[in-house]
Write a structure and sequence with these properties.
Layout lengths: L8 E3 L2 E3 L6 E4 L3 H11 L11 H9 L2 H13 L2 H6 L10 H10 L2 H13 L2 H5 L11 H6 L1 H11 L6 H11 L2 H38 L9 H9 L9 H4 L4 E7 L8 E3 L3 E7 L16 H14 L2 H13 L2 E2 H8 L3 H13 L3 E6 L3 E6 L1 H15 L4
Parallel strand pairs: 3-4, 4-6
Antiparallel strand pairs: 1-2, 5-6, 7-9, 8-9
Helix pairs in contact: 5-11, 6-11, 9-10, 16-17
Length: 385
């Protein structure tokens, strides 16, 4: 079918297609959801605010299993694993996904995984990412240092050379790669994740069901993201890449805390969000909070339970707005520490972020979210009279 001609406009330094309505789906997506939970277990040392289950479980993992989990999810990643099996019946339950993964031709599986590692949707749409020419799969297989240098070029200062080298060695042995993946994911599922998934699935389904009564038709992709996640995330994205998607699929999660994860293929963007109900009006003083609302409140209170982060919020209240560098200078933090604090506050929607002079980030207090936290806590001080 011939695509209709579209008009493009300039946005900053790039050329961005005009926002168009997208097809929006909110669904449980069991396999994608489980892969994101497994990935969270390899992120607890780098990211604050993940769920209690993720932190407790990661600490209890045997060293060998934890190291292999980092190899799988840092080295290969959720997006590659999600795209390793076609969307459909095999992505509806994890044992079926494992069977489909084991049944794939090892070379075809290897090529699919490597393609999505190099062609990552998250990197192509993330505003702060460095866009580099993607190497050919054949070139990477012939000389793994090409792939290692490519990943290092778009990574941060915590790039793990040894782990990257191990991953690319595995790519050169597709049979061993497939066996390792199937064995690792099976072990992690059966010993660690299956029971927890059965526990949280009803909560996640409640979030999906709550969105069935919400009209999400006619929204642009940015409007859809805000409607479902409850957050304005446009400062995260390279808009010229994001606005080319005509479909977006949302899935509620719990183990990733307030952080979103997004991945996809060339046609559809897939995005997690902290399991929640659609925004409602002010509820009655005695109306009980749902488990989802209690979880969201607990996450925000945990983000506030730190002297430095509280001081940041009060400084923003007093000053109106502060840049990242101003926050670093004011609190005597290094860049990494400031980034972790700001990332957690932003993920909990306690801060708003805008960009100034290109890449410079400026933060303001999100008084609406702070007010909501205080309103809910205020119930505890009310005598109901």
């Amino acid at each position: 079918m011939t695509q209709p001609e579209r008009t493009f406009f300039s946005f900053g330094a790039g050329v961005v297609p005009p926002p168009q309505a997208v097809a929006v789906t909110v669904a449980l997506e069991p396999v994608y959801n489980i892969l994101v939970s497994m990935a969270a277990l390899s992120s607890v040392d780098e990211i604050d605010g993940l769920s209690e289950w993720a932190m407790r479980t990661a600490e209890a993992l045997p060293d060998a299993l934890a190291s292999q989990n980092r190899l799988v999810f840092w080295g290969i990643g959720v997006e590659a694993l999600a795209n390793a099996v076609p969307y459909g019946p095999a992505t509806e339950h994890f044992p079926g996904y494992l069977d489909a993964l084991a049944a794939r031709d090892p070379v075809a599986l290897r090529d699919e995984l490597l393609y999505w590692l190099l062609h990552s949707t998250a990197w192509r749409t993330l505003l702060d990412s460095v866009l580099l020419p993607e190497p050919e799969i054949s070139a990477v297989l012939a000389d793994p240092t090409i792939g290692i240098r490519f990943l290092e070029g778009r990574a941060d200062d915590k790039f793990d050379h040894q782990l990257a080298a191990t991953v690319f060695d595995l790519f050169r042995n597709p049979i061993a790669l497939q066996r390792m993946l199937v064995a690792h994911l099976t072990q992690l599922w059966e010993t660690t994740v299956e029971r927890e998934w059965n526990r949280v699935r009803p909560l996640l389904q409640a979030s999906v069901d709550a969105f069935e009564g919400v009209s999400l038709t006619g929204l642009t992709i940015l409007e859809a993201i805000e409607a479902v996640t409850g957050r304005d995330l446009r400062t995260l994205f390279r808009l010229d890449a994001l606005l080319r998607y005509r479909r977006i699929r949302f899935m509620p999660t719990l183990h990733n805390g307030p952080y979103i994860v997004w991945f996809g293929d060339d046609k559809e963007l897939r995005m997690t969000f902290l399991a929640r109900r659609p925004q409602r009006g002010v509820s009655a003083a005695r109306e009980p909070l749902s488990a989802l609302e209690l979880g969201e409140l607990a996450g925000r209170l945990a983000a506030l339970a730190d002297e430095t982060r509280l001081a940041m919020l009060f400084a923003l209240f007093e000053q109106g707005e502060l840049s990242t560098q101003a926050i670093i200078d004011r609190f005597g933090l290094n860049k990494s520490a400031a980034s972790r604090h700001l990332r957690l506050l932003y993920a909990n929607n306690l801060l708003r972020e805008r960009r100034e002079d290109g890449a410079k980030k400026v933060y303001t207090l999100n008084q609406r979210t702070v007010g909501e936290v205080l309103r809910l806590l205020g119930r505890l001080a009310s005598d109901g009279g």
